[in-house]
Amino acid sequence: MHPAPSLIIFTTLSGFGFGLMAWLGAGIGPAGGARTLAAVLALAAAGAGLLASLGHLGNPQRAWRALSQWRSSWLSREGVMALATLAAFAAGTLAELLGRPAPVLGGLAAVLALGTLFCTAMIYAQLRTVPAWNTPLTPALFLAFALTGPAILLGRWAAALALLALTGIAQLAHWRAGTGALAARGLGVAGATGLAGWAPGGHVRPLEPPHTGRNYLMDEMIFRIGRRRARALRRLAMLLAVILPALLVVLVPLTGAGWLALGPALLAHVAGTLVARWLFFAEAEHVVGLYYPAARG
Predict the structure, then answer these.
(1) How far is CA 116 from CA 15, 113, 197, in A?
(2) What is the helix (H) or strand (E) element at residue 80, kind and residue range?
């Protein structure tokens, strides 16, 4: 799949924002002005992520129409849940600023935030046309990443270490399950064309390409990445998103380094998340690529 920058920014920022809302809504985090600042950051990150997602739409001005299909569309459910989360969290934050804390609103916002993250992950996990995504590991991966960054930001070092380990395990498992997922399902040109039972030995190859020039499917659904480059980026993603932050977080209780360690740990984790999310799209093979063997390489 083509790693569109808008989708990478959307899933990274909105994941961080709604993950932070889940922590704060559950009553975990600083108090006073620091809590207000964290709340503003959560709203800003989630809002910026949602705005970035509009860049991937052909007609962004019609995005509101997607909300009407919540009965059958995970994208629509995500939109409805996101708006409900933002409303509940903003109302709870305002109540705190006015000196009238509303724990019920906070708890509701936390539940809705987790629901939004799950809906976002299911947009990809429910796609049988992309076997690498069509696994329960996808929601687990999205939730792990979304909760880890905010744990580092809030200085919850014990939880951050546990979540970093969980994120690393989920990411490695997702990579392992996704590698060769398309081939593992027995899919090929013969199955894609429906000619498996007609061809000698079940072997089919296209005589001519489907199109004489590039088209939307080739630009959006087919993306080539070399194995050596993919392996290098996987190592970089794991180093930045998990290993380096974990080492820095360990320094906090041992040395009392505070933000001297947590700040770089958070920056490294976010950078690693961006690399991992780029790979999430770049390595995924869509079944439509079976019709373009030359383009897939």
Answers:
(1) 9, 5, 44
(2) helix 74-97
* Cα–Cα distance for residue pair 28/21, rounded to 1 Å: 10
CB 141, CB 132: distance < 8 Å: no
| CB within 8 Å of 107: residues ≥ 6 apart | 25, 26, 27
Kindly state the tokens that stand for 281: 């799209």
For every one of its 297 residues, what pLDDT tens digit does the chain have, with 9 covering 90 and above? Answer: 788 888 999 999 999 999 999 999 999 988 888 999 999 999 999 999 988 887 766 666 666 666 777 788 898 999 999 999 999 999 999 999 998 989 999 999 999 999 999 999 999 999 998 999 999 999 999 999 999 999 999 999 999 999 999 999 999 999 999 988 877 776 667 766 677 677 666 677 777 666 767 777 777 777 888 889 999 999 999 999 999 999 999 987 777 777 777 899 999 999 999 999 999 999 988 888 777 765 554
Which position has the token pair 């930001």?
Answer: 153
- 242 closest CA partner among 176, 146, 185, 163: 163
- Sequence-ordered list of residues with C-beta below 8 angstroms from that of 174, at least 6 positions apart, any chain: 135, 137, 138, 141
| Rounded distance between C-alpha atoms, residue 195 and residue 80, angstroms | 42
CB atoms within 10 A of CB 247: 13
What SS3 state is found at 30?
coil
